[in-house]
Amino acid sequence: MSVYQQSRRTFGNKSVLPTSNDTDSKNSSQAVLFGLSRKQLSLIVLVVQNSTLVLMMRYSRIVQKPGQTMYIASTAVFLAEVLKIIACLLVMRHQQGTWDRFSTMVRREILGKPSETLKMLIPSGLYALQNNLLYVALSNLEAATFQVTYQMKIMSTAIFSVALLGRSLTRDKWLALLLLMIGVTLVQSQSMSSSSTTSKVEDILLAPQNPFIGLMAVITSCISSGFAGCYFEKILKTSDTSMWVRNIQLGISGALFSLVGMLAYDIQPIMEGGLLQGYNWLTWVVVANQALGGLLVAIVVKYADNILKGFATSLSIIVSGVISIYLFGFQPSGVFIVGAFIVMSSSYLYGLDFSKRFARVKPL
């Protein structure tokens, strides 16, 4: 029997070929590492990336040993963009197979099309702003509070997807967004009522924090993220350029904006202490996580649906909250727990497609 014949399935008197969805579903359910399927691995990677980035960034911004210099956030954003460009170039080199094909593609798609790079100026500028604001937010908000509040990017993305991409949202999704706002409001009520933080880590100094500044940074970052994401999606859908090429173009523009911001606002401390002042192993891990995390998630979500991503978001909030209790002495109130539960539920509900689910229900 040929391979073609083996791949056919019989349904009644008809033979049909397995569809791509069948293949993806089968591949996703097969064990690929330590007995885990691709979907399970995707869930773990998403939870680990979301939780560790927030917790490590928070720790690196508020915890200082006596005499230790705080690293400059703008330098970390710039180096993350440079690292992202390098990672995308390595992926392109692997895809092209040879250095000749790789160099030809770089000359043709990147160096030979400066106008395409200019298209990335708007989203890259917004992403640069967003990345800097994340450091501001996590310097002033608890990791768990940030994780919950940052889910407002779901709302901003939804609104901009309607405005820029012409999408329409169902009543269920608008309800989920309303629940999201209620939950975030409850969570922020604790943050505003208690601005002091006590850490259980010994021999450290805590940087001063301002929850209001942190909240404004998160809101601005969410708006920036929503608009930039929809704008970038629109560009991707209106051209056949490789995603990696687009990310390199985005990284080049982002590195330029980050460099300008770094030199404009932090040139004096950089001249006095150097570009890498205050850097340690944790700082470099934060930079790498911020640079490669987005690319890793983009690859991982190929095997994850919206429900799984929503579940990963919920688990990340729980993980961040639990670790914050032991690491930063975070004490969640009853209002915070209720608000976090509402946000997690809204994130999960937003990823559900009720119309398709009810369409499969046959009337009695």
From TrEMBL:
Alphabetical keyword list: Membrane, Transmembrane, Transmembrane helix
Chain positions covered by the region annotation Disordered: 1-27
Subcellular location: Membrane
Transmembrane spans: 41-59, 71-92, 174-192, 212-232, 244-265, 281-301, 308-328, 334-352
Membrane topology qualifier: Multi-pass membrane protein
Keyword Transmembrane helix: yes
The keyword Glycosyltransferase appears for this protein: no
Name assigned to this protein: UDP-N-acetylglucosamine transporter
Native source species: Mucor flavus
